[in-house]
Design a protein that fits this description.
Length: 304
């Protein structure tokens, strides 16, 4: 299958590209720069020049493929509304290009967006309408029109070597402030998954997914944020402290609204339906690895 991948050179997208090629698929990767294009060529993928804002490039890339995996997102959480709107337009464009075909479209969303009804968020839970990101609603609307669209919800921590998401931001804050903090009692939970396990799930969805289905890419169902802060404290050798809800915004900045969420999630249905089994190490074990703190150690050494 020839697969068009947006975000193909990103942290998750690059793992998906490798997973697809190793499984015998052809990859057409979206690249907005010469550096990104060279990276794709080195991995054995074909290059499609364009960007998330260039809707014509998205349309032509989807039309040239047998399936689409959409992972690109403008990760500017200080301007979340515009980023969410750009994502909405991109998904609609990709879906329009696939209309009338049986080609799959996999759209990426987040497990924290689920409106949890039970102890754990499940694939059956609808998205929370209060979040500006509307990836799922757009994908399901496309599915209702006959597009073979489905949704993969990823947890707030997709971890592994090269991570530049929420956890590295927490490490950076701890390094800057001299303490690793959690909010309140730190018992609110974050689900997590290793990037290689997530990449494998994207491929299974591409090959087996159902129209309009929601899947959860969750390995750790809920890691208490206090344990995350403690692992960061060990890695940086700094104290671990609690911040009140009132103090959190000043200490954490924009990430406070996410780090304070209690969002445990299950992937039981996904595992049963697709035969997916996470096999990589969990978040805390990964945080105990040196790669998360190498940059921090270098920064400390340079100050010394």
């Amino acid at each position: 299958m020839r697969v068009f991948v947006t975000g193909a050179t990103g942290f998750i997208g690059s793992a998906i590209v490798r997973e697809l090629i190793d499984a015998g698929h052809e990859v057409l990767g979206l690249a907005r720069s010469d550096v990104a294009a060279k990276s794709l060529v080195a991995e054995g993928a074909a290059v499609h020049r364009g960007s998330l804002e260039d809707l014509e490039s998205l349309r032509s890339g989807a039309a040239a493929a047998d399936g689409v995996i959409h992972t690109a997102f403008i990760h500017d959480f200080s301007n979340y509304g515009p980023a969410a709107e750009a994502d909405r337009r991109a998904i609609e464009t990709l879906g329009d290009a696939l209309a009338g075909s049986d080609h799959p479209l996999i759209v990426t969303s987040g497990s924290l967006l689920a409106q949890r009804k039970g102890p754990l968020a499940t694939e059956e839970d609808a998205p929370n309408p209060n979040f500006p990101r509307k990836s799922e609603e757009v994908a399901l609307a496309l599915a209702a029109r006959g597009v073979r669209a489905s949704v993969l919800r990823l947890p707030p921590s997709v971890h592994g070597n090269g991570d530049h998401g929420f956890v590295p931001r927490l490490i950076s804050i701890a390094r800057e402030k001299g303490v690793s903090a959690f909010i309140g009692d730190g018992l609110n939970r974050w689900p997590a998954v290793h990037r290689l396990d997530a990449a494998h799930l994207y491929r299974l969805m591409l090959e087996k997914n159902s129209v309009g289905a929601r899947y959860h890419g969750v390995a750790d169902e809920g890691v208490p944020t206090r344990k995350i802060a403690e692992a960061i404290g060990r890695g940086l050798n700094v104290p671990v402290v609690s911040k009140s809800s009132e103090e959190a915004a000043d200490h954490f900045g924009w990430i406070a609204r996410f780090f304070g969420i209690d969002g445990p999630a299950s992937s039981q249905q996904t595992q049963e339906r697709l035969g997916w089994r996470p096999v990589q190490r969990g978040l805390i074990a990964d945080l105990n690895a040196e790669h998360y703190f190498e940059q921090a150690a270098e920064a400390v050494a340079s100050r010394g």
